[in-house]
Write a structure and sequence with these properties.
By secondary structure, the chain is an alpha/beta fold. It folds into 2 domains: about 5-200, Spore Coat Polysaccharide Biosynthesis Protein SpsA, Chain A; about 205-295, no CATH class. The chain contains 11 helices and 9 strands. It has helices at about 20-30, 45-50, 65-75, 95-100, 125-135, 160-165, 175-185, 205-225, 235, 245-260, 260-295, and strands at about 5-10, 35-40, 55-60, 80-85, 90, 110-120, 145, 155-160, 190-200. The longest helix has about 35 residues, at about 260-295. The protein is globular and about 50 Å long. About 45% of the residues are buried.
Length: about 300
């Protein structure tokens, strides 16, 4: 096998997501490849996938897996030299494999990844989540570059020897940030190409918008505690500083969207008040989780 592609399961299933296996099949056409779906929803989804896509390998787990845990299961089953990752709620472009593989011609590059666009733009609450979740991964026409941007887990490829040396943390949210740091620590470079875009079906509902920002705030505190960047130290010493984050995050979102798509930028302007609320919810969750972390360390 030359190019295994992994479709990673997550617990939030949206209508029409199972057929994304067919989209991955089309992207893999012409390659000696295998497609692996890691499924842990606890219902009959695995049987449905096997029936509709007989060429796909389905790994079923009786217990619900985290994003990192699901990727590790897929890695264990994969047999090729390159391993691609995509989430079940994403649509990949037809040239996805070729576009990412091209960046691994240099043996010093251990991974490559791309950007994330919006699959369901009519979903306003989903757009608001998207702007805050994927702020560092908006589609752009910028040239690919070696940089410190982490590779988002739903659009990336790794050399097999890399993902067998280091494992994804067993968590959902932040696992790709930590893994990208570990990749560089073992001496590999990563290339981020914002032109290679997968489209993401974003979460729906305003209560889900608020809940997910809470999850992102808690996860941010946890993975920054693990990474221990110097710049984060003041926020751990005085967690209330997190409430200043909208002064940085929201302008960053706006300026990046100006370089991305005007349609996204205008949606962001209309959603700016709710994005402010979401960012403050994130900040409060970050502040509280820092307190939990400090209590654990005492």
């Amino acid at each position: 096998m030359r190019l295994p592609a992994l479709v990673e399961e997550r617990p939030h299933l949206a209508p029409g997501e199972i057929p994304q296996a067919q989209v991955v099949e089309r992207a893999a056409a012409g390659h000696r490849s295998e497609i692996i779906v890691v499924e842990s929803s606890g219902d009959d989804t695995a049987a449905t996938i096997r029936k509709r896509f007989p060429t796909v390998t389905v790994i079923q787990s009786a217990e619900q897996l985290t994003a990192g845990g699901a990727r590790n299961r897929g890695i264990e089953a994969a047999r090729g030299r390159l391993i691609f990752f995509v989430d079940q709620d994403c649509v990949v472009p037809p040239n996805w494999i070729d576009a990412l593989e091209a960046h691994l011609s240099d043996p010093s590059v251990g991974a490559a990844g791309g950007s994330v666009g919006i699959q369901n733009p009519s979903n306003w609450s989903g757009c608001a989540v998207y702007f805050l979740e994927f702020v560092y991964h908006f589609p752009k026409r910028d040239s690919p570059a070696r940089d410190d941007n982490f590779l988002v887990g739903c659009n990336c490829v790794y050399r097999a020897e890399v993902v067998r040396r280091i494992r994804f943390p067993d968590q959902t949210l932040g696992e790709d940030v930590i893994f990208s740091r570990q990749l560089r620590q073992i001496g590999y470079a990563a290339i981020y190409d914002p032109r290679v875009e997968v489209r993401h079906h974003n979460r729906e509902g305003w209560s889900e918008f608020l809940n997910y920002n809470r999850k992102m705030g808690r996860a941010s505190a946890d993975y920054h505690d693990a990474l221990k960047y110097r710049w984060i130290a003041p926020f751990f010493a005085a967690p209330f500083l997190a409430f200043l984050s909208p002064l940085v995050i929201l302008p960053l979102v706006g300026f990046d969207l100006l370089r991305s798509r005007w349609s996204y930028f205008f949606r962001f302007l209309m959603l700016l008040p709710i994005c402010l609320v979401g960012n403050l919810v994130w900040a409060n969750a970050f502040r509280r989780q820092v307190g939990v972390i400090k209590a654990r360390s005492q």
